[in-house]
């Protein structure tokens, strides 16, 4: 299957890299900024972020609830995380890359899809703009939540 680029987002988050990674990858944070996620159900009941971790992601789009088989295919905390989701339509991959900077954390999010058939390939190419709209709103909420919930420097540290 050929991978199609769905979207790539780059942003600088005014927050430390550890906090930014936690907000992007840990369930307790994701449900606060991702309107679609209901819960992740882990095969072993453990939500730790390790490569190879399998889970069912329960999501809601409009009034429809869907369950998606997912796997963390790469975790290098707090610099990179990759998750794959397998559906009848194909395999989608979200790759999150973080770099600490003087201004906070640079985040690059790359979403790709390997459609399962030529029909889904046409669908993705035709409706990529609509798919991006869903992600645009979610990652806008991610940024707002992460910056608002970031630990504030102590007054003594600000004086340095």
From TrEMBL:
The record ties this protein, via CDD domains, to: SRPBCC
Name the chain's protein.
Answer: SRPBCC family protein
One Pfam family from the record: Polyketide_cyc2
Q: Which SUPFAM superfamilies match?
A: Bet v1-like (SSF55961)
| Originating species | Exiguobacterium mexicanum
């Amino acid at each position: 299957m050929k991978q199609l680029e769905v979207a790539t987002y780059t942003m600088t988050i005014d927050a430390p890299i550890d906090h930014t990674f936690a907000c992007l990858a840990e369930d307790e944070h994701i449900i606060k900024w991702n309107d679609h996620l209901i819960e992740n159900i882990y095969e072993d009941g453990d939500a730790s972020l390790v490569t190879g971790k399998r889970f069912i992601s329960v999501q809601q789009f409009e009034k429809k609830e869907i369950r998606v088989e997912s796997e963390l295919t790469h975790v290098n905390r707090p610099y990179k995380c990759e998750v794959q989701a397998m559906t009848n339509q194909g395999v989608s991959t979200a790759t999150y890359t973080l770099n600490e900077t003087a201004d906070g954390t640079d985040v690059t999010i790359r979403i790709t899809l390997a459609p399962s058939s030529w029909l889904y390939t046409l669908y993705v190419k035709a409706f990529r703009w609509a798919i991006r709209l869903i992600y645009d709103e979610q990652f806008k909420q991610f940024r707002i939540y992460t910056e608002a919930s970031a630990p504030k420097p102590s007054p003594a540290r600000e004086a340095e």
